[in-house]
Design brief:
With 212 residues, the protein is mostly helical. 58% of the residues lie in helices and 0% in strands. The chain contains 11 helices and no strands. Helix 5 packs across helix 6 (85-103) and helix 9 crosses helix 11 (176-189). The radius of gyration is 18 Å and the shape is elongated. The two termini are 27 Å apart. It binds iron/sulfur cluster (SF4). The site of iron/sulfur cluster has 13 residues, from loops.
Length: 212
């Protein structure tokens, strides 16, 4: 890591913070159980769609214990519109069973423990740790963070784990939680996958991928 790279990463976070002072997780949830379920369901699906599905799911299964006892077909039916519903139903019920069996019904608070749960990889674990528990153990790398980190020259990597490692090296721990929210927000509003709106981007003067 060069000093210039770290300075640029800091500038990116500072400018995006100015632009999106309220950046936060868009998944509706009332507790860590609802957040971990919503995050698993958000794979390959928009947060809006997840937010449409989860009220019905949590009405039927309001606790991790109730989801642990659920019948798979009824969960599949409830999460169908989030896509890949068979896998997702299996993941969330498997996660719930393990949380009940191994963690006394409380969503665990460490990366190592979260990674033992079905359907939970580092992205989901980082969302839960950062949003539900305020713990910065890593940086959320979803499709937006992946794309923007590369366009902004914060990483040359393509593997989410290596991208996360680069971001963790470039940025102070105090910025890790916000960085995910900020890059996701900017990716949704300005730096879209197909057609980035470089002409109205506050990073265009220094972004190596700017077309403006
Ligand atoms: S200048 Fe363009 S490519 Fe760079 S971050 Fe902004 S929108 Fe994305």
């Amino acid at each position: 890591m060069t000093r210039a790279a770290a300075e640029w990463a800091k500038t990116v976070v500072q400018r995006l913070r100015g632009e999106y002072p309220d950046a936060r997780c868009a998944l509706l949830h009332r507790n860590p159980y609802e957040l971990i379920v919503s995050t698993i369901l958000s794979a390959q699906c928009t947060d809006e769609m997840v937010n449409r599905v989860t009220p019905g799911l949590f009405r039927r299964y309001p606790t991790v214990e109730s989801l642990a006892k659920a019948r798979l077909p009824s969960v599949e039916k409830l999460v169908k519109s989030t896509g890949f519903f068979r896998n997702k139903a299996k993941s969330i019920t498997g996660m719930a069973k393990k949380v009940v069996a191994d963690f006394g019904g409380a969503v665990p608070r460490t990366m190592d423990e979260l990674l033992t749960l079905p359907g939970v990889a580092r992205k989901t674990a980082n969302v839960v740790l950062g949003v539900a528990f305020g713990k910065a153990e890593g940086v959320v790398v979803d499709t937006h963070v992946h794309r923007l980190s590369r366009r902004l020259g914060l990483t040359k990597e393509d593997d989410p784990k290596k991208i996360e490692r680069d971001l963790m090296e470039l940025l102070p721990r105090a910025d890790w939680i916000d960085t995910g929210h900020l890059l996701i927000g900017h990716g949704r509003r300005v730096c879209a996958a197909r057609k980035p709106a470089c002409e109205r981007c506050i990073l265009r003067d220094r972004c190596p991928s700017s077309t403006a």
